[in-house]
Amino acid sequence: MKALNLATEFEMQSMKETKTIKSYADKQLSIANKVRLLGKDFPNERIVQKIVVTIPEKYESKISALEESKELSNITLGELVNALQAQEHRRMMRHGVAIQGAFHIKAQNIGGGKDKKNN
């Protein structure tokens, strides 16, 4: 019964405009893993399909490109998330939004510090 409730929760999820691709994919994977722990089959392909159908329209161009290149039919969850994150980062950079992560840290390190060799 709990697996059914989790599967229903999975189906009811949709990505909010304010969420990042990574956080949304992590949430979907978390629900899927809980279902798996209860002994039910839950293929990653189902997670990929769910993400493709429920992400905001601003990612439609990337999904279309993946469909046209025939990659969408056999793309892994990691590959999908990476492709969508790349688009998300490009959009953020165009709109001047600060990006957390490697780019942000690298920019801080360029400014200098005690150990100039590592910069």
Task: Describe the secondary structure blueprint for this structure.
Elements: H1 2-12, H2 21-37, H3 44-54, H4 60-68, H5 77-94, H6 102-110
Coarse shape = globular
The chain-level structural class is: mainly alpha
Bin the strand percentage. under 5%
How many whole angstroms does the radius of gyration measure? 18 Å
| Quaternary structure state of the chains depicted | single chain
Termini Cα gap: 55 Å
Number of domains: 1
Total helices: the number is 6
Brief account:
With 119 residues, the chain is mostly helical.
List keywords for this structure.
119 residues; 6 helices; mainly alpha; 0% strand
Structure characterization notes:
- The chain is mainly α and 119 residues long.
- The protein has one domain (2-112).
- It is 63% helix and 0% strand.
- Helix 1 (2-12) runs antiparallel to helix 2.
- Residues 104-109 have low confidence and may be disordered.
